[in-house]
Every structure is written in structure tokens, then in C-alpha cells.
Amino acid sequence: MTVSQKVPVGVQSVPIASATPVTNVFTRDFTATFGAITALTGTAVTQTVAGLLTTDQVFVQCLGTMTAGATIANARVSAANTLEITFTTAVALGVSLGSLSWRVTVFR
Question: Fewer CB atoms inside 10 A, N or C side of the chain?
């Protein structure tokens, strides 16, 4: 869509060729305690989230304050009902995430 094109009244989005439409979006909050991330590396952790499908696309955010130096590198559904989050750190010391509240937004 160019800048000059406008979405017609009553249409919520402009379809993208060969794209799969998202029909459902929902969120789920959970609290989890994740361990330490080794210095200058990353680690993948899993969390059970009932109802997740391997075809779901997910976005994960921390609802609290993550330890300085820790970042979320990736999130995916690795198996049915299993959320996998990959954390990384670029600091010279390892970091511990501890117990935090999280929100997963699921696009189905």
C-alpha cells in the first residue's frame, strides 16, 4: 500500500498476498521463576501455558523489571502447551532472572 492509498470504510486491514489471516488474539499472564543466564550467552527456558498450539505465533513481555543486562531474544511454542523463551545477556557477568510476572500474547 502506498502512502496515497486509503483503506476503504468498513475494511479493517489491507490483505497481503499469500498471507495467513490472524483470526484470534488472546493474552495470558503467568508468574515464573527462571534461573541464571551465563555471561555473554543465552539460554532457552520453557513454561507450560495451557492451550498453546504449535501453529500459534507468540509475543512475550515481562510485566515487572527484568534484571539489567537480560533480554528476550526469541519466543515460540516449542510443543503443545509449551512456551519457550530464549534469554540472552551481553554483560560480562551472568544474570539471574528470579521470579517475575509475564504476559504472552498469542496470535492464532
Answer: N
Q: What digits encode the pLDDT tens for the residues 23-47?
A: 899 999 999 999 889 888 889 999 9
Of 21, 26, 20, which is closest to residue 106 (Cα–Cα)? 26
Instruction: Enter the pTM of the model.
Output: 0.80
Total length of the chain: 108
What is residue 75's DSSP assignment?
E
CA distance 98 to 90: 18
Residue 65, C-alpha cell as written in the block: 523489571
Q: Are 37 and 87 in contact (CB under 8 A)?
A: yes
| Edge-to-edge strand ranges of the sheet holding 25-37 | 25-37, 95-107, 57-62
**Which residues, including other chains, have CB under 8 Å from residue 5's CB and lie 6 or more apart?**
14
